[in-house]
Amino acid sequence: MTLDTVLLAVGPRDADRSEQLAETVLEVASPADATVVLAHVFTDDEYDDVLDRLEFDERLEEADPDNVAARHSTIQDLQSVLEEHDVDYEIRGAVGEHGPSIVELATSAGADRVVVGGRRRSPTGKAVFGSTAQEVLLSAPCPVTFVRHDD
């Protein structure tokens, strides 16, 4: 299987692991000369908070999810790493529940691989709170690489 497109999905809690995510996506995408889709998924509340924090004027068209994602610091950090390694990329944003939105982005981007981060959680924690990474692992249209970050 050739890799043409790798989706790297991040959310609001991934800033502390952006270096690990960048290393992993480079390991996957660089040898295959794949394009990386940097995707940031926001819940409705997270999106509203980011719009306020980044001082977007919601009346302007610039406040679409792709542009909001492009201005987010985690995406900018990852973008710098990809540029440094001459990896082609595009930036996508989405608003909705994290797991289903990542799966939808992977499908719409035609991703051949998805890279997501997550934390080690107890079985009870997963059952009570759910797991975005678990949902992506089970529902993605392609293989998923999970980058674990221990809290």
From TrEMBL:
InterPro entries to which the protein is assigned, alphabetical: Rossmann-like_a/b/a_fold, Universal_stress_UspA, UspA
Domain UspA, chain residue ranges per copy: 4-148
Domain of life (superkingdom): Archaea
Gene3D superfamilies reported for this sequence: HUPs
Family the entry assigns: Belongs to the universal stress protein A family.
Protein name (record): Universal stress protein
Annotated source species: Natrinema longum
